[in-house]
Write a structure and sequence with these properties.
The protein is α/β, with parallel strands linked by helices. It contains five helices and six strands. It has one domain: STAS domain (Transcription Regulator spoIIAA, 2-Layer Sandwich), CATH 3.30.750.24. The chain has a six-stranded mixed sheet, with helices on both faces. Strand 2 and strand 3 form a beta hairpin. Helix 1 runs parallel beside helix 2. The mean pLDDT is 85.
Length: 133
């Protein structure tokens, strides 16, 4: 069931599997930092409200470049809830080199990798198969 959609991102929740799916749009390139912050706060709320266990993020069209200060903020806010409920995260990555580098740098932080099973994929099918195994 679709639970949110705007110009930048769409969220779908699968209640049967406690799976939250996130789909970024190319329009994210023109997003402001404050808009990303608002989306991340909403994501945290979805994790909490839906008791999400599995998270799939299609970031192939995520074109916003996350600067180091914003990475720290997102880390503090998102990990505080994710670490309490999420067991597995699967992501498909952006083809845009600069945004991909900032995303990989962010998601390779040690505490995310140790607490949550976290894996990158180049297609949704493989990502979903891994999540649901």
């Amino acid at each position: 069931m679709e639970i949110y959609c705007d110009n930048y991102v769409k969220y779908i929740y699968n209640e049967e599997n406690f799976l939250l799916e996130e789909y970024w749009y190319a329009e994210s390139e023109s997003m402001y930092e404050e808009e990303l912050r608002d989306i991340m706060l909403m994501l945290v709320n979805f994790f909490y409200e839906k008791k999400t266990k599995l998270f799939f993020s299609d970031m192939r069209n995520f074109l916003f470049v996350i600067d180091p200060d914003l990475q720290v903020w997102v880390d503090e806010v998102v990990s505080s809830v994710a670490n309490k409920s999420i067991t597995k995260i699967a992501r498909t990555m952006s083809s845009d080199f600069i945004s991909q580098m900032s995303l990989e740098q962010f998601f390779e932080e040690e505490h995310y990798s140790k607490i949550i099973k976290n894996k990158f994929f180049d297609n949704k099918e493989d990502a979903m198969n891994w999540l649901l195994e």
